[in-house]
Amino acid sequence: MSELFCEGEYALLLLDRRRRYLVKLEKGKRFHTHRGFLDLDQIIGRPEGVAIESSMGVDFYVFKPSLWDYVESYERPTQILYPKDIGFILVYADIGPGCRVLEAGVGSGALTSFLAYHIRPTGRVYGYDVNPRFIEVARRNLERTGLLGYVELKLGDVYKGVDERDIDVAILDVPSPWLAIDPVYRSLKPGGFFVSFSPTIDQVEKLVESIEAHRGFIVLNVLESFTRSYKVRRGETRPETTMIAHTGYLLFARKLSLQF
Ligand SMILES: C[S@@+](CC[C@H](N)C(=O)[O-])C[C@H]1O[C@@H](n2cnc3c(N)ncnc32)[C@H](O)[C@@H]1O
After folding, report:
1. Closest ligand 1 atom to the C-alpha of 179?
2. pTM (predicted TM-score)
């Protein structure tokens, strides 16, 4: 992508830490905010990081959006995974270029987007969801970020089985992950990573008991992570008043080489 802003691409307009807007650059159009409007023609042909003055004389800084900037603006009919959980998944399941990843359910495609971004250019994400509406939303979202080409979206129930074999990583964000243990076992290659995200601790208990009864995996870790943003001003530096206190628990396991 060119370093100067082009017509038709998206730009991120930053007013301050909280207020930011993702805007499609169209010639002759204006973007209205409570701090005045911006002529989008002012941005086209300019480099990243410049300040653009609104009609009320307020500076907005303009950047190319990050993947998370796009994902935050996604159509979201489902709850989505947050960066803190996505980051742990990418690191602990060793997801990188060339990985073949199985995911269920896809939901709005937030996690799918980061998986696709990291397995490029030679890997593939096989994303299952039981709800055709969510598959279509995820397709639109992935298309917008240019990542759809790395993903196969499939309408299907992971509890009933999946088509893929020799998968490197299988990731579940479904209500009853214990029902998918056998399909995941069959799809993974020996040593493959099994990750599950669950919002409640009783789901985690049931999943761990079921994995132990199955005997095809070794559980590596069960964790919950927290992040806090800080307000920084001399003499007043402290955590922000609000935070995302709970999203869910992550379970990481690896497939054992057993004969059943
Ligand atoms: C919370 S959403 C997943 C959100 C997703 N991780 C994201 O970051 O956008 C859970 C999804 O699981 C899907 N689902 C529930 N049971 C399923 C099953 N048995 N097989 C496949 N998908 C399932 C639901 O339709 C829903 O879209």
Report:
1. 19
2. 0.95
